[in-house]
Amino acid sequence: MQFQQLAYFVSVAETQHFTRAAEHMHVAQPSLSQQIKALEKELGAELFVRARGNISLTDAGEALLPLARRILADTDTARREVQELVQLRRGRVRLGATPSLCTGLLPGVLRTFHDLHPGIQLLIEEGGSHDLVRQLARGALDLALVVLPLPTPSPALTTRELLHEDLVVVSSAAAAAPRRPVRIADLRDQPLVMFRHGYDLRELTVAACRAEGFEPSFTVEGGEMDAVLGFVRAGLGIAVVPRMVAAQAGRELRVTALARPGLRRTIALAHRSDVAPPRAARELQRVLLATPLP
User: Fold this and answer.
1) What is the reported pTM?
2) What is the pLDDT of residue 11?
3) pLDDT tens string 206-253
4) In angstroms, rounded to a whole number, what is the distance separating the alpha carbons of residues 211 and 223?
5) Cα dihedral across residues 153, 155, 157, 158: positive or negative
6) Which residues contact 138 (CB under 8 A, 6 or more apart)?
7) In a 10 Å sphere around its CB, with 0-12 CB exposed, 13-18 middle and 19+ buried, how is residue 250 labelled?
8) Which is nearest to 148 in space by CA: 241, 259, 270?
9) Which of 95, 135, 171, 242 has CB 3.0 to 4.6 Å from 238, enough for a Cys bridge?
């Protein structure tokens, strides 16, 4: 049994046509047919029912198809793994992260990784933890930086805590300074600039306010991180943001701590438990874990 024979078999099974399968595999149709016959002879069973204008799998073909697909997939994975292991010159990493982490944490980490492996393409997807978990589950991402606890616990994901970060209040430097430190209860009478629905920081802030017995009042809502900071600079209200983001916000914003116990969030690196991340993604994970974090 030869690898190429299995590839021809899978192509015929998927196209249900010998000529179209040959075109897809870039081989002459008689040569493909001969290889299929040789495979059937090797296995001692016919794999296809050949009727005029209709090609279908026999019971033997149905049994072989998932195994053949798995062999082809494993072979492709082995080829890519060896190529990536020999030299991390090419490849890609699909990394998801919440917008605040894209602003505060990732630039330095990605710069270090890019300096080490300039040939690897970095594809970054911004989103809330809920959306990132879904994309991980369907294989659209290799790694994701998410906020714990996850909105819906997923046993199919492996998570590793990276850091715990305090949240702070930012306000316009031109506005009156808020009481120091700010209590959650103090937010009752404050106009808040609020992130869009699905944003982890929105859910965390609203939950903290409700725990104090009130619904927060929004002057503007629906923005991403940069928009929220811009609205605060313009004096439209205050916002609760991660400390590492506030540290880079500039002199136009005033940063005020939250009174104890305050609000904290836990950042974790997540990937699927059932599939090992590609070599390039594992290298990015190594760089991320080795980088001193705020």
Assistant:
1) 0.65
2) 93
3) 999 999 999 999 999 988 888 999 999 999 999 999 998 888 877 889
4) 24
5) positive
6) none
7) exposed
8) 270
9) 171
Within 8 A by CB and 6+ apart from 56, the residues are: 16, 48, 49
Q: Residue 271's beta-bridge partner residues?
A: 158
CA-CA-CA-CA torsion for 221, 227, 228, 232, nearest 10 degrees?
-110
Name the DSSP letter for residue 128: -
Q: How many helices (H) and strands (E) does the chain have?
A: 11, 11
Where do we find the tokens 């195994």?
67
Q: What is the pLDDT of residues 129-175, one digit of tens each?
A: 888 998 998 889 999 999 988 766 666 889 999 989 999 999 998 88
Q: How far apart are CA 30 and CA 115, in angstroms?
A: 51
Contact status, residue 218 vs residue 193, Cβ threshold 8 Å: yes
Cβ neighbourhood burial of 145 (10 Å; 0-12, 13-18, 19+): buried
CA-CA distance, 247 to 244, in Å (whole number)? 5
Report the pLDDT value the prediction gives residue 231, as an integer from 0 to 100: 94
